[in-house]
Structures are given as C-alpha cells and as structure tokens.
Amino acid sequence: MHEIAMMAAAGASAATASPILQQLSIFVLAVFVGYYVVWSVTPALHTPLMSVTNAISSVIIVGAIIAVGGEGTNIATWLGLVAIALASVNIFGGFAVTARMLSMYKKKEKK
User: Can you supply one Gene Ontology CC term for this chain's record (predicted)?
Assistant: First the structure.
C-alpha cells in the first residue's frame, strides 16, 4: 500500500511540473523525431513528404490565425503573425519544389 502512495505522490509532482518545461520537452522530442524521420526518407518519397509538410503548415496557419485573433497585443499575437509568415513561405516553397520535381518526370515534346 505504501508503494501505491509513493507512486501517487510521484505522479502528483510530475503533474505540477512547469507547463513551459513540459512544452519544451515535447518540442525537443519532436525535433529529434523529425530529424530522424526526414533524413531516413528515400529520394523517391521526397515529393509525397513535401505534400505532407505543406498540409502540416496549413494546420499551423489555422492555429496561428486563432492565436492572432485574440484580444489585445500580446506575445501570442506576435508569435502568431510570425508563424503565419513562416508557414506561408514554407507552403509556397513546398509547392514550388514539388512542381519543379514533378516537371522532371514529364515527357519532353519532340519538335
């Protein structure tokens, strides 16, 4: 019974950890997972991967628009504006690269 109380106390202390620390931990883990996923992709899967990252960037824009739409001028509003700008550049660049890669597979017309 004493072990259960100790585990419950440990769980309670973990639940009261700083939200910034929790979010930073998730961000660091996401960076590592993203790094290993992207670098292990074969060149044949590059175009589908670009399409997925464009879709993810569109979700980021939706979240950033929600953050910008809040009342007042606080840090979330400015970070939302930065997120909208960077995700827009990412989406445009992704579609440009995807279009260029797909054009390499088109048959050339003979004159």
Answer: plasma membrane
